[in-house]
What we know:
The structure holds three protein chains of three kinds.
Chain A: E1 4-12, H1 19-27, E2 34-36, E3 43-46, H2 58-74, E4 83-88, H3 104-115, E5 122-124, H4 130-143, E6 149-156, H5 160-168, E7 189-190, E8 192-200, E9 221-230, H6 243-252, E10 261-265, H7 272-284, E11 292-293, H8 296-299, H9 306-319, E12 322-323, E13 345-346, E14 351-358, E15 362-370
Parallel strand pairs in A: 3-7, 4-5, 4-6, 10-11, 10-14
Antiparallel strand pairs in A: 1-8, 1-9, 2-3, 6-8, 9-15, 12-13, 14-15
Helix pairs in contact in A: 1-9, 2-3, 6-7
Chain B: E1 2-5, H1 12-19, H2 31-44, E2 57-63, H3 68-77, H4 84-87, H5 94-103, E3 109-113, H6 119-129, E4 137-144, E5 152-159, H7 160-164
Parallel strand pairs in B: 2-3, 2-4
Antiparallel strand pairs in B: 1-5, 4-5
Helix pairs in contact in B: 1-2, 2-5
Chain C: H1 2-15, H2 42-56, H3 63-69, H4 73-83
Amino acid sequence: xxxxxxxxxxxxxxxxxxxxxxFLAVRAGRSALQLYPAxxxxxxxxxxxxxxxxxxxxxxxxxxxxxxxxxxQAGLDPSGPRVGMVLSTIKGNVEQIDSEDVSxxxxxxxxxxxLGVTSKPVVVSNACISxxxxxxxxxxxxxxxAYDHVIVVGAEVQSRFIVTGFQSLKALSLQACKPxxxxxDGLNLGEAAAAMVLRAEMPGQAGHDGVMADTDxxxxxxxxxxAVRNDANHISGPSRTGExxxxxxKYLLPLVNREQLAFVNVHGTATRYNDEMEAIALERAGLxxxxxxxxxxxxxHTMGAAGILESIVSMQACDxxxxxxxxxxxxxxxxxxxxxxxxxxxxxxxxxxxxxSGFGGVNGALLFRKGGAR
Amino acid sequence: xxxxxxxSGADLGALYxxxxxxxxxxxxxxxxxxxxxLLTEMLVADETDRFQPREDRAVLVFSRExxxxxxxxxxxxxxxxxxxxxxxxxxxxxxxxxIAIRNKYAGETSAYVLEKYDEEQLWxxxxxxxxDRCTQSALVAWIDCPSDTVWQADAWLVSREEILK
Amino acid sequence: xxxLINELKLKVIEALNLEGMTPxxxxxxxxxxxxxxLGLDSIDVLELIVLLEKNYGIRLATPQEGKEVxxxxxxxxxxxxxxxxx
Lengths: 374, 165, 86
């Protein structure tokens, strides 16, 4: 099977605009979460500054920004016929629902045009796993042979629409969220954009972007494989048996080098039910002896960007030989003895798994491996 | 491959009573989920072992407008009391989840938004999704409903052999 | 009280889209959640919380509180009678 590598990353977040800066912020436990006033009640969130922005769509603006950074790092000409684009978002431009065509497809078409992408974009909108599902789709597009590169970009901006919705579900915490903690009482919403350029390996030849010579491979991250599975249980309540998460992990386990598995970066929204569900899935998958961390205590839940952003930070951490701490966590509050990384730990591992879950009963898992390993 | 369609504006309550009738949750669904639910009922009605849990069937849903009809209902409810029951349907993939729950499909469920109904692009994505080694068949749907009364609703039941031949 | 119970039943049927049900179909003392009775779920609880706020000015902070109040139509009616602000 064709190998898929990540040759460029780009991020736009409230705590930093490069993967390196964001990694340092996470390491230092520096988050942008703060309480925003609103009626009928305030909400805690990690939001981007709109200062100096006056275009029609802030959502599209940050998506383009993140994608441009990834494209620049990859040294890619996005206009070629064999460059694809996948957009991940949940609500896109929904704040303009009363006045505009808020179709995610229209947004994707405009983003692709701004980037100079000439192939037809596709939007993956699979609730809170959208960004992992989009990376998986990007891998599949490369493996189909129809593309050499795929730009996968995920972005989310917050709006009254989303905030009031989560408030009506009683899912938001008024404090900085506490993934897997005994005192956790809900999630925080977040804004971010994150992008990766994925590239199919063509054995024996360096790519036209020049970054895929064999000598470059060891420094690149490989996206080994991924899966999406449904709980088939409830549209908003996580499975009591961790069914979908477990099944997604089960699909990957035969591909994992257990002694090289540095950590599992979980969804960890800090709602009672999500974190408990993940703990059960991790136990069923035999992963209780692997460090686990969650980054929502830094970024909040960045929805359509979460999987790409959290994977980029996880790559940085692994490159630095480190398991990042779980901001907000102090005392284990799930029924299974999950090894949550409370403090920074060192690791020699060269692989990690990214997990996400979402409404509609969807769950996703993706295995990353350092390119020169194995 | 098997194909079903629901004409735009059809009486979905009447259709439900005709093809299902035993799933009152239907009436809580948004129009997108109702259409997906009914199309699936029509496609798999005669399958043996229909409600046996299975992981080898994917549900892949495509549209242009996603769940915009329901998004507008939710936005209207925001004016006084935001409705949680409407908010949970403000996602284009909930229809796939409803189909999975009803039929105990524990395989992949995915939702895609395309600029228009583009046969070539849609089926290329479906073919790609069969790269998941577990997936042996897929329920594929194009359900585009800009409002509660106007839609295109088509679904196909396809096997790995049919797709990869 | 019977009048209030009937009023609540009509509102619940409408808010939760309980198609084809009439107030007579709902036993005053039957559980609203779980496998018996109406078989309502976690989203229904949240929608009932909205119903109380919208119609009676009652604000419940958590779904857990709701589970107590929504044990049966009779319990709900008692709670509304005791706590209503409009």
